[in-house]
Backbone:
């Protein structure tokens, strides 16, 4: 297949294919599962197929003409391919895990359709090089997450789903105004055209601020972070998908795409934005220390870790940017693992309140081990993958002479270790309050796989690091 | 051949009136066939050709013409009449009532077609009244207290609007001495700034605003929509107020008065007020159909915002939004009809989690709600985007930003509707509810396909249907 067709099919196959899943589900449950897995696996393999070409420095493009400069345009560069690989890898494991997790709830047809549609739209965001299509796919993920958060259909579930939808939709609308301003100045929504335009003039700060509204609301960064913790009412694989691996990374990805890879921003933002990230990171880490709901703790931890990523990307130093990108992958795998473990614990014990849990390690040794591994990666202990990403960000901090930031983030990292250890000891050690058995084989295999990947990514860190370096080099070169 | 669009309905109306009682059962089928004919005619170049039928000039002396704007309206009218007829089954049951209903629908069709096609201000007024009179009776079809009250309010407001429009026509006749659009346009150009003309424009528009039901002239609209029988609400919200109010305003401004700065700011101002306060009022409603009625007010506000730009893009966007609004609002009223049919109530407090009991109604309502809120990639997003682009290009940044943020309000009340009615766990009193019958799910599915189709194939739609509108 020519590369441009392949690029379109990465987005098109899961997006269009997802609508056939409810039909397949009417024939047989297994058929639907199989088809869902195949659709996501297809995208993954297609991205994998693209990666050697892209990482050799080429950019694969596809474009289709439409009126008003709304060209449907996709472009695959190092950043996009890396992001796609990271989200699809985690997405695949989550789809597998869902088969067992979801098997005894209603609306399973809708569930599989939405998950695949979500991953497809995510690919749309990652590869779009036209701002309007970026926005369209962005909102498609919002629609899907609205339905998924309210999946259990309870009163609070639906209220919180509405909250998440309204917050992200509002942010995205403000971002759309920013895009319109760019359109007004340049007469195009195409990123390549806009980029040419701003090579000679300064990028308007007002647009940056407007687009940041969208980014911060989607990535659940302070002050738009509360929807994320509330969205924990969703099924666990969904929280893993939305909160850990994919949805919240959309914001930081778009930040990297627009303000690191495409437009130069003024130096002052390299100070302001890290501060926003730092405050977000520390405040939410504090919240994670206080919460007693297992999924809310992990959700706040996500807010805190997103702060790290945002911090790395916004420092404007090459090593830190590379660290931020690597963080997206490492955090995605480890945090998805934590959410999936939480799902197993929740289904086994029927509670998410950690004060009512304890001593689970004796009955759930595999889940416990997986939880420990993933937590270690999030904490940033060597030799787990999370260590390298945190280390690169600190390295960037020191290289840029921002010692102040380095200390703030060391403090946040310390808090990460504190709250994760707290959760781990309360849930897995001590006296057994609710006896629970290990989850189903597929579910446990999935969390073990993620735990193993978190460890393996640290031991063989060379491979992801290579990709990240290529992607960063491409981004930075493009700018200067 | 354009006169066929009026003469054929007229002939059918006479025909079914003279049929013996048994034959009156076919009345429904006749209206359905007329609606089909209309949809076919819009796409048939030979019927749309501006040619006179031979020998007719002596008895049927109207100047008829269609451009792309009229054709889109004709298409909307055809679609909505068809959908309303399909949905009428469970609501208009008695044989004689069905006959009256069909007759009135034909009258409505004729009136609306006339308004859309005539190029003569007095004939326009006549057809305008034909359509309005048919609507009064249709609203009061159930002779109960609420429908009669709704119809009465509509009647009163319409009479005031009529007085306004008639006085404006009188003034215009005074100045130009003719009623044809082209003559008036030429005559008004002689002294474009005379106070008399400004008065005529103002009074005319005030009448049309009342008919369109924009804020603050909206008093009758929620009552009329909410108390009318379900198929009539579909008709009213889908085309009647849009044709009698919005289309007529567009027609006379484009063809006769032309855009002036003052006119533009009036349109924008009315549009903005309607869009915002309509959305806010919708949030406070407890009755499903009233919520939809306020949402109509808000969406008409958007249409006026696009139109008020006065640029080709703005006008095209406004037309596009009229079409999209017709589709998604008809769909929502069909959904409301399905819910009313199964539950016997429209009180949202007594509904919960209906999507699991009525999957087709639930799914199609999600599509319509999202399209109405302007969430991509559905049809409503594109027309709103074009409206906002048009505002932006005209340099009205503040208005554009407000319009964008009003989308958030729109989404908020649509999510409220979804949460109360469809999305959630069904309570005990919902136990026996099943999906509505075929004649309510079929129109819902047709309209949902239209929404998704127009959204996904928007470049094609925009090029072939919407753009030609502004090429005159």
Residues:
């Amino acid at each position: 297949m020519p590369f441009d067709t392949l690029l379109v099919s990465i987005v098109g196959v899961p997006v269009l294919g997802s609508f056939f899943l409810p039909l397949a589900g009417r024939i047989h449950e297994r058929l639907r599962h199989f088809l869902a897995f195949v659709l996501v696996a297809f995208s993954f393999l297609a991205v994998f197929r693209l990666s050697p070409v892209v990482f050799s420095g080429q950019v694969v493009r596809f474009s289709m003409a439409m009126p008003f400069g709304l060209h449907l345009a996709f472009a695959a560069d190092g950043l996009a391919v890396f992001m796609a690989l990271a989200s699809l890898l985690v997405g695949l494991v989550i789809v597998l895990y869902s088969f067992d997790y979801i098997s005894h709830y209603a609306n399973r047809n809708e569930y599989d359709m939405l998950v695949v549609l979500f991953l497809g739209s995510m690919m749309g965001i990652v590869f779009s090089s036209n701002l309007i299509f970026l926005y369209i796919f962005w909102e498609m993920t919002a629609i899907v997450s609205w339905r998924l958060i309210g999946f259990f259909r309870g009163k609070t579930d639906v209220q919180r789903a509405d909250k998440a939808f309204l917050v992200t939709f509002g942010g995205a609308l403000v971002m759309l105004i920013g895009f319109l301003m760019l359109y007004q100045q340049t007469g195009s929504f195409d990123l390549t055209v806009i980029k040419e335009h701003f090579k000679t003039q300064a990028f308007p700060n007002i647009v940056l601020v407007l687009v940041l509204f969208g980014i911060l609301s989607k990535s659940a960064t302070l002050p738009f972070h509360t929807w994320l913790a509330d969205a924990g009412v969703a099924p666990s694989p969904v929280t893993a998908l939305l909160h850990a691996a994919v949805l919240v990374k959309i914001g930081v990805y778009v930040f990297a795409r627009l303000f690191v890879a495409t437009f130069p921003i003024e130096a002052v933002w390299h100070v302001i934005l890290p501060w926003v990230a730092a405050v977000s990171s520390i405040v939410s880490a504090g919240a994670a220390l206080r919460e007693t709901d297992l999924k809310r703790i992990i959700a706040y931890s996500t807010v805190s870790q997103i702060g790290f990523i945002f911090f790395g990307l916004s420092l404007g130093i090459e090593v830190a940017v590379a660290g931020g990108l690597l963080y997206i992958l490492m955090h995605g795998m480890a945090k998805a693992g934590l959410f999936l473990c939480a799902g197993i614990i929740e289904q086994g014990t029927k509670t998410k309140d950690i004060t009512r849990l304890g001593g689970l390690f004796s009955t759930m040794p595999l889940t416990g081990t997986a939880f420990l591994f993933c937590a270690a990666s999030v904490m940033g202990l060597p030799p787990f993958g999370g260590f390298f990403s945190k280390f690169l960000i600190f390295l960037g901090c020191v290289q840029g002479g921002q010692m102040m930031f380095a200390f703030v983030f060391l403090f946040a990292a310390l808090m990460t270790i504190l709250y994760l250890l707290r959760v781990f000891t309360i849930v897995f050690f001590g006296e057994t309050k609710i006896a629970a058995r290990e989850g189903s084989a597929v579910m446990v295999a999935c969390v073990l796989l993620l735990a193993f990947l978190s460890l393996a990514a640290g031991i063989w860190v060379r491979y992801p690091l290579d990709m990240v370096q290529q992607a960063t080099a491409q981004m930075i070169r493009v700018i200067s | 051949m354009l006169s066929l669009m009026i003469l054929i309905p007229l002939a059918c109306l006479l025909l079914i009136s003279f049929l013996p009682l048994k034959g009156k059962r076919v009345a429904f089928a006749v209206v359905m066939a007329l609606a089909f004919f209309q949809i076919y005619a819009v796409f048939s170049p030979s019927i749309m050709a501006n040619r006179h039928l031979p020998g007719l000039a002596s008895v049927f002396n109207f100047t008829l013409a269609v451009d792309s704007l009229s054709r889109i309206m004709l298409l909307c009218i055809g679609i909505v009449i068809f959908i309303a007829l399909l949905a009428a089954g469970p609501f208009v049951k008695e044989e004689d009532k069905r006959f009256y209903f069909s007759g009135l629908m034909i009258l409505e069709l004729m009136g609306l077609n006339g308004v859309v096609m005539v190029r003569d201000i007095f004939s326009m007024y006549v057809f305008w009244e034909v359509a309005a009179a048919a609507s009064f009776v249709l609203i009061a079809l159930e002779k109960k207290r609420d429908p009669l009250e709704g119809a009465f309010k509509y009647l009163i407001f319409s009479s005031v609007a009529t007085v306004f429009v008639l006085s404006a026509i009188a003034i215009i006749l005074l100045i130009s001495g003719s009623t044809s659009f082209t003559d008036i346009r030429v005559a008004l150009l002689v002294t474009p700034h005379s106070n008399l003309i400004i008065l005529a424009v103002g009074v005319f528009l005030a009448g049309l605003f009342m008919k369109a039901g924009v804020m603050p002239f909206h008093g009758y609209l929620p009552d009329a929509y909410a108390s009318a029988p379900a198929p009539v609400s579909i008709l009213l919200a889908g085309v009647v107020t849009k044709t009698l109010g919005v289309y007529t305003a567009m027609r006379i401004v484009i063809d006769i008065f032309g855009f002036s700065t003052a006119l533009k700011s009036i349109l924008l101002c009315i549009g903005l007020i309607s869009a915002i306060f309509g959305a806010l009022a919708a949030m406070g409603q407890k009755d499903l159909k009233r919520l939809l009625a306020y949402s109509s007010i808000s969406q008409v506000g958007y249409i006026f915002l696009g139109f008020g730009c006065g640029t080709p893009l703005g006008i095209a966007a406004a037309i596009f939004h009229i079409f999209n609004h017709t589709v998604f609002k008809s769909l929502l009223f069909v959904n409301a009809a399905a819910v009313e049919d199964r539950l016997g109530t429209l009180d949202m407090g007594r509904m919960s989690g209906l999507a699991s009991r009525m999957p087709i109604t639930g799914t199609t309502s999600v599509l319509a709600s999202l399209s109405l809120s302007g969430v991509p990639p559905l049809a409503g997003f594109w027309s709103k985007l074009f409206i906002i682009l048009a505002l932006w290009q005209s340099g009205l940044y503040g208005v554009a930003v407000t319009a964008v943020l009003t989308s958030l309000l729109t989404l908020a009340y649509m999510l409220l509707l979804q949460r109360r009615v469809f999305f959630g766990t069904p309570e005990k009193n919902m136990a026996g509810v099943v999906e509505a019958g075929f004649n309510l799910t079929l129109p819902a599915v047709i309209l949902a396909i239209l929404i998704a189709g127009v959204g996904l194939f928007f470049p094609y739609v925009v090029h072939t249907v919407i753009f030609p509108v502004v090429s005159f």
User: Anything to note?
Assistant: Chain A touches chain B at residues 66-68, 70, 106-107, 132, 135-136, 139-140, 142-143, 146, 150, 153-155, 158-159, 161-162, 165-166, 169-170, 173-174, 176-177, 180, 183-184 (CB under 8 Å). Chain A is about 75% helix and 0% strand. Residues 267-480 of chain A form one domain.
